[in-house]
Amino acid sequence: MKPNNETLELLNRHTSVRQFLDKPVSDGQLAAIIGAGQMASTSSSVQAYTVIAVTEPALQAQLSKLSGGQAYIEQCPVFLVWCADLYRLREISGPYLQGAESYEDSTENLIVATVDVALAAQNAAVAAESLGLGIVYIGGIRNHIAEVSELLGLPELVYPVFGMCLGYPAGVNGIRPRLPLQAVLHHNGYQAETSVGQVKVYDEITRDYMRERTGGQKDTPWSEMMAGRLAQPSRLQMKEFLLQKGFMQK
User: Fold this and answer.
1) What percentage of the chain's residues is helix, strand, coil (to nearest 5)?
2) SS3 45
3) pLDDT tens digits, one per residue of 8-22
4) What pLDDT sits at residue 212?
């Protein structure tokens, strides 16, 4: 029998929220949520991230436009932009290096910063949901990443990884089913046949989910949706942008 408690129940109820009440998020709530994010694991304590809380309606409207016209960016009371940040480390380390070569611009440190910000954001998401708020991640913030970076005044070695709408839910979607546990939990080595084979089971689950969600208008299986995603070029400007921002120089 699987264990259960309040934390597990909260995690298993997660769903993306795309409709928000016209109700503010207090400064205290925001501080508690970001503070919980800061308590996530971080590689060697580098804490290589910065969060920009956007509450100005005009700025939210601009970010919505740059992110593909997603209206909930404008509707939510707080829009968080989660940034990987190696600028701060470079600036504070300089006096101690005394001219020695520094590797803040290495590919490894880009990975460290990106993982750090993702871990912190998910901690914050769970904290928000524990307070009765909801969130949705916005990868579209990278659609026009150079323009977003300029709009927010991001310096060299800082890039926006994703956005996050935060607020009180006005409506809750059904919980989208995930891959079977056997597809993602492998023991003592990668099990390729199981990993792929379990998708057949999941395809039937997602067919049923899509039928229910669309009132029978769609029954597209997950594998077909993923094939369509891979067939579309997506944000191919990222490599050039990151290089221009000073990342991946080593």
Assistant:
1) 50, 10, 40
2) helix
3) 999 999 999 999 999
4) 86
